[in-house]
Protein: Signal transduction histidine-protein kinase ArlS
Amino acid sequence: DHIEVVRITPFVVQTVKRMEALHPDFAFELDLPEQGCLVKINPLHFEQILLIILDNAIKYSEDDKRINIRSRAERRMVSIVVQDHGIGIPSEELQYVFDRFYRVDKARSREIGGTGLGLSIARNLVQHYQGDIQMISVENEGTRVDVHFPDQQEG
Ligand code: ATP
Ligand code: MG
Structure:
């Protein structure tokens, strides 16, 4: 397991740049600390988590194609928040989206495509590093994903 101390800000910037190139119709708005927080993690795992969340934000957005990404250091944890303004998730379904193969609205998701595994993989990875992942969503307004990792203090 190739665990490294990953500096969040440049890593997120680099990953978002690649997503931007693939999805030029989207506007990614970044709010990241200049110094950049540090997280001890396999960088491939961190990238995978980010890509799963960004892929969802893109897939489940319609007209409003702004995606906000921010990060903060807060009380020994680092937060990474991805907010979209897409179709959202009905409140009664929100509790199931981390389940393997679960997809909201079978007909709708069949059109969009996917296996329903992304978020369960993301949650397993996050928890492997003593982190947590939470979702808040309002149908037809958008979805926000909050990821927290223990802050690897500098020095
Ligand atoms: P996969 O990621 O495996 O290709 P998927 O996107 O369907 O397929 P998950 O990423 O696990 O699977 O997400 C589960 C379900 O949660 C999705 O099918 C979708 O209904 C809902 N969902 C996830 N993220 C969002 C989001 N940002 N906005 C609206 N719905 C979402
Ligand atoms: Mg997905």
Notes: The mean pLDDT is 94.
